[in-house]
Design brief:
The chain is mostly helical. The protein is about 75% helix and about 5% strand. The protein has a single domain (about 10-290), classed as Rhopdopsin 7-helix transmembrane proteins (Up-down Bundle), CATH 1.20.1070.10. It has 12 helices and 3 strands. The protein has a 3-stranded mixed sheet.
């Protein structure tokens, strides 16, 4: 379909009400982005190198960390650069590309969180069958299904967005491109776009959320039937980190997209979106690091191994000498 848009670039209006605080905003979001990159990269490295973490739960966690890196990298670098520009712009092609990657990561994460909830359900409610149900092949299929849902959903939205005629304005009241914002700027019929948006919200957003909720109802019910308090605490600790991430993710997403339009303000919209798009990906590795004993133990082993090798650089040479050969 021929693209009939009259807009070649968009101007972001997010943070425009506070031009005197651009340096402060830049430093704050640079720190958050740096922590996000370091934290999630550390989780990825730890899971890859520590054999004790080669389990389905941490396999899915590594994908979640990769998604968080991609999600923030699609928006934050441009936002940081725009703090030093007089016109905070993005090209039409750049906006569509940003839209594609954001929807892909968000959709994939929704389904992946439901998959992780199912993993915890099997681990607690059917522990004897865990290894057979959550086999390596099954985990790869579940991860592939999550990516397939995210990419398919994103392709549909992106292609429908390309069919729009954008002519009302080139200003976006945000700091990144989003489908509802572009629909407001369209001069063409958006009924199909809106119908698909609602359908996708139900299939990719609401359905995984309900599946996760039902899974945790069964999980909590099973945990409460455990006789010993120590056993209940141990069982709950295996899913506490994931449950915390789920509550934060869906809580901020719901507040971001389901707020009443009557209470709209640019500052509030920017703040809420920052929490959902920038702060949440930073919190995920922190939550899994602080609340998960296996991750903390793995970090301790990796740190000890690193400093031990740094403190004794001559040891490998000694071990290769004849006196140390077995």
């Amino acid at each position: 379909m021929e693209n009939q848009t009259f807009i070649e670039e968009f101007v972001f209006m997010g943070f425009s009400n506070h031009p005197d605080h651009y340096i402060l905003f830049f430093l704050v979001f640079l720190a958050i982005y740096s922590i996000t990159l370091v934290g999630n990269t550390l989780i990825l490295t730890l899971i890859r190198t520590d054999l004790t973490l080669h389990t389905p739960m941490y396999y899915f966690l590594s994908i979640l960390s990769f998604l968080d890196i991609c999600y923030t990298s699609a928006t934050v670098p441009l936002m940081l650069a725009n703090f030093f520009r007089s016109r905070k712009t993005i090209s039409y092609a750049g906006c569509v590309a940003q839209l594609f990657f954001l929807i892909t990561c968000a959709g994939t994460e929704c389904v992946l969180l439901a998959v992780m909830a199912y993993d915890r359900y099997v681990a607690i409610c059917s522990p004897l069958h865990y290894s057979s149900i959550m086999s390596k092949r099954a985990c790869v299929k579940m991860a592939a299904f999550s990516w397939l849902c995210g990419v398919t959903n994103s392709l549909v939205h992106t292609l429908l967005t390309l069919s729009l005629t954008i002519c009302k304005s080139h200003e976006l009241n945000h700091f990144f491109c989003d489908v509802p914002l572009l629909l407001k700027l369209s001069c063409s019929d958006t009924s199909i776009n809106e119908a698909v948006l609602h359908l996708a919200s139900a299939l990719i957003g609401l359905s995984p959320c309900l599946f996760t909720l039902v899974s945790y109802i069964h999980i909590i019910s099973t945990i409460l039937k455990i006789n010993s308090s120590k056993g209940r605490a141990k069982a709950f600790s295996t899913c506490a980190s994931h449950l915390t991430v789920v509550v934060i993710f869906y809580g901020t997403a719901n507040f971001n997209y389901n707020r009443p339009s009557s209470g709209y303000s640019l500052d509030l919209d920017t703040l809420v979106s920052s929490l959902y798009c920038i702060v949440t990906p930073m919190l995920n590795p922190i939550i899994y690091s602080l609340r998960n004993k296996e991750v903390k133990a793995g970090l301790m082993r990796m740190t000890t191994k690193y400093f031990s090798s740094s403190a004794r650089p001559a040891l490998p040479n000694l071990m290769t000498s004849k006196s140390f050969r077995l």
